[in-house]
Amino acid sequence: MKRSEKIITNSVKIAGSSSILFILLIFVFLVREGLPALSEVSLKDLFSGRWYPIEDLFGLLPLISGSLVVTFTSILIALPLGIGTAIYIGEIAPKNVKEILKPTVEIMAGIPSVVLGFIGIQALSPFLREFFNLPTGLTALSGSILLAMIAIPSIVSIAEDALYAVPNSYRDASYALGATQWQTIWGVVLPAARNGLLTAVMLGIGRSLGETMAVMMVTGNAATTFSGLKSVIMPVRTMTATIASEMGEVASGSVHYHVLFFIGIILFIFSLIINISSSTVQGKSKQERGQVIS
């Protein structure tokens, strides 16, 4: 190997290893600043149902439940729209329509979340308030719809790649047996791409879970505990919104400060689990494709 090739190879290795190092450093920082919360606040109080730091009430359950309600409601909205759009672009749309629709979806991914938040405040929230006859339109449903708009481009992009990776021989064999296009898509293409589609959904969940600005602007920021389906049309407060709105005003080194970093640890762990699961599913998908090709 030439000297220049060794330098390039080592540079690539260092760049790849640095991402792992940065993640470890972030985790160490979060642990250093967040773990003192466990000694300053009892576990019973830390996982209680009341968040009101002014009176030293640091219950995280309303924040965790608020994040989960908004995230999973958004995925329920984004999943059929995202997968359906990917199927249309990858399997059905004519070439001229595909050339317009695909860039449009990619442009959606570049819209700043704060802009979507403004749209939610000015248009979406008033509509939901009148439609459901609510005191306020700033609810979990408002945040879920905006998060769905944010997650759809990621789901469409990854799902389309998963459909594209299905060998054309599968489709040809299905058509040769007399199946229609929809029968082929539903019975052959989607099952063959299931791991890639699952990866798209999981990354969509991760994208929704980590969003801050749009959620903080339209969910009402009321720390209420999950109380069934009614919570979807009630104001909620997410973990990300809590960190963003309170970290700038909290005293460094205080109990409140450490609890906010502890919330960051919980978010980090959630995101890590989602990404590891997604990578595992993606790895199985590639392995299955390799076995088919061989």
From TrEMBL:
The chain crosses the membrane at residues 12-31, 60-89, 109-128, 140-164, 185-206, 255-276. It comes from the Bacteria. One of its GO terms (molecular function) is phosphate transmembrane transporter activity. GO terms for cellular component: plasma membrane. Keywords: Cell membrane, Membrane, Phosphate transport, Transmembrane, Transmembrane helix, Transport. Residues 64-278 form the ABC transmembrane type-1 domain. It is found in: Cell membrane. It is a multi-pass membrane protein. Pfam families: BPD_transp_1. Part of the binding-protein-dependent transport system for phosphate; probably responsible for the translocation of the substrate across the membrane. PANTHER family: PHOSPHATE TRANSPORT SYSTEM PERMEASE PROTEIN PST (PTHR30425), PHOSPHATE TRANSPORT SYSTEM PERMEASE PROTEIN PSTC (PTHR30425:SF1). This is Phosphate transport system permease protein. The lineage of its organism: Bacteria, Bacillati, Chloroflexota, Anaerolineae, Anaerolineales.
